[in-house]
Design a protein that fits this description.
264 residues, 6 helices, 28% strand
Length: 264
């Protein structure tokens, strides 16, 4: 399977962010990708109001993403915001494309490093997997990557690939942590990990939005044995990668961590 990782830098402008999705999805399709993954907060960057733009999954922004997927005949995963409880929003991944229409709400909220996502975001409750052309994918969002159980749950539900969409917060050691975590989650779950982050705004001359996690880039595709098959730096860009999902069974025979795991 050929897939693409679209490391964009979203802004406050919903229409402009849709155009970025169209631009990168078109490039991914031209490169032969069946799936293109966009970051968390593709709808609107963190550091801006979210409540006023949150919409249901059948709302106009999501419908336009579906339209792009239909027009290009490609599967798209992109981060958006949907209405939650008590005036908060949900941090949602929209999955759309040929025969696909599902979503995942971020389970682990980023109440760390001086940022309180739970003040404005309502947590999701359940793992989500989907199938595309015979390959099963699990979903995760940003801070979720620090919690191995979600990735192993996806794997036990059949996932051969775990997708992580992020807008990673900048700071000392954070890039090293991101690299370590995405590799570790591949090894924990013996899956490919497709880790797509927002690009670093500082690479385009814009500084970070205070304590808001606006992205550092470093998107990557990791093998089930923890090797990087592709990696980007901080700048916006597209990585196109061929993966062989059948490799997962081979790795799980050699390294049966899912079968050997004990519950305590």
């Amino acid at each position: 399977m050929r897939l693409a990782v679209a490391q964009i830098i979203s802004s406050a402008d919903l229409a402009a962010n849709l155009e970025l999705i169209r631009e990168y999805a078109t490039e991914a399709k031209a490169a032969g990708a069946e799936l293109v993954v966009f970051p968390e907060a593709s709808m609107r960057a963190f550091g801006h109001s979210l409540k006023d733009i949150a919409e249901p999954l059948d709302g106009p922004w999501a419908e336009k993403v579906r339209g792009i997927a239909r027009e290009l005949d490609i599967a798209i995963v992109a981060g958006m915001f949907t209405p939650g409880k008590d005036g908060r929003v949900r941090n949602t991944l929209l999955v759309t494309g040929p025969g696909l229409d599902t979503s995942y709400d971020k389970v682990h909220l980023f109440d760390a490093f001086g940022f309180m996502e739970s003040k404005t975001v309502d947590a999701g409750e359940s793992p989500v997997t989907f199938e595309l052309n015979g390959t099963v994918f699990g979903l995760a969002t940003c801070y979720d990557v620090r919690f191995p159980a979600l990735f192993t749950a996806n794997a036990k539900a059949g996932a051969q690939v775990n997708i992580v969409c992020a807008s990673w917060g900048a700071g000392e050691g954070k890039a090293e942590q991101w690299d370590l975590l995405v590799r570790a989650r591949a090894l924990d779950s013996t899956t490919f990990v497709v880790a797509c982050g927002q690009g670093d705004p500082e690479t385009t001359g814009a500084g970070p939005a205070g304590a808001a996690p606006t992205g550092i880039g470093h998107s990557a595709v990791i093998s089930p044995l923890g090797s990087a098959l592709a990696a980007l730096d901080g700048k916006p860009g597209l990585a196109v990668v061929d993966i062989d999902p059948s490799l997962v069974d081979e790795v799980r025979t050699k390294l049966p961590v899912l079968a050997n795991a004990r519950q305590f």
